[in-house]
Design brief:
The structure is a homodimer of 190-residue chains. Chain A is of the alpha/beta class and 190 residues long. Helices cover 27% and strands 33% of the residues of chain A. Chain A has two domains: 89 residues, Dihydrofolate Reductase, subunit A, CATH 3.40.430; 75 residues, no CATH class.
Chain lengths: 190, 190
């Protein structure tokens, strides 16, 4: 069964963006992580986004600046199938994009079933929170950055109940980040 | 120079206590961590607390239940010098305790200077936040627990500005926790 994966940078205090909504504090100069992800991750066939991250990505990765910034990511993101969850978005012009109005179990099941590989969610805080609440995430791949932001937006809060996890891997990198891979413990496994 | 260390459990989403103020989610059945801490940590001569944690600890560790729960911690905590920072507390009856009204650079400097070893802060969220803001913490030893609490009290927020850290160590344990050791980057090192 293909998986729904979350990949995000977080601060040491669990924040996803700083008090200005910025993510400039995340250490993105990490060749080591890029190589590690390339080698260790299974095939990703679909990228899933909320509206905000989709629009940000669609305005950057297909452009010459995006291609120059990271040719590998620019290529895989542009060529991959993209699903953007939004009730308000009318058009999604980045190639291979479809809009889905509802991030529920039915839609996720349909996307998952029609895939040749795993689905990856980048950024998209609201979508991550919603799918976490619905128990629809199979694995979290979080890059813990060596910074206490002290204020900003939590990746998960608020959730009506806690989610127990199993640690799959922790891997430190030279730039001080730590990749943490977790899977939720399903009810029967607790 | 003796250090001021913070040692705390945090959830994967950076929370220090859950929405009921509880810490029952933290995995404390960790012999591996206890052994590791015993062997790797330098001499601790003083424990520093905020009022809430001090009162909780003073009501448990010197009792038979506390001694039965973890004889090692009961002994080192009871025998160690204890400083509780509080403006309102009138008495601190647990042996070797002193009350300090102000958690500022002068007091911390005095405590640090009169020590034979390092100072360790357990729990004490408000104290940790205040000393972090004042740049008076030398090292954070955080045990990252495999749980998304989703709501509760952040260990650090709100802080008026972010604190950049250097990762000293990350060590996973069999129970799914990860010990993360960080030191703040002082201004000159950034």
């Amino acid at each position: 069964m293909h998986k729904i994966l979350v990949f995000n940078n977080v601060s040491m205090d669990g924040l996803f963006s700083d008090s200005d909504g910025g993510v400039g504090w995340a250490k993105r100069d990490n060749e080591e992580l890029t190589e590690y992800v390339k080698q260790s991750r299974g095939d990703i066939s679909t990228y899933m986004f909320g509206k905000t991250t989709y629009q940000m990505f669609a305005g950057f990765w297909p452009t010459p600046a995006g291609k120059a910034a990271n040719p590998y990511f620019a290529k895989i993101l542009t060529e991959g199938r993209k699903v953007v969850f939004s009730k308000s978005l009318k058009r999604a012009d980045w190639e291979n994009s479809v809009i889905e109005p509802k991030a529920d179990a039915t839609t996720i099941g349909r996307v998952r079933k029609s895939n040749n590989g795993d689905c990856l969610i980048f950024g998209s805080g609201t979508l991550v929170r919603d799918l976490t609440e619905k128990g629809l995430i199979d694995e979290y791949q979080l890059v813990l950055n060596p910074v206490i932001l002290g204020s900003g937006r939590p990746l998960f809060s608020p959730l009506p109940k806690s989610v127990e996890l199993q640690l799959l891997e922790s891997k430190p990198f030279k730039n001080g980040t730590v990749l943490l891979r977790y899977q939720p413990l399903k009810l029967g496994e607790r």
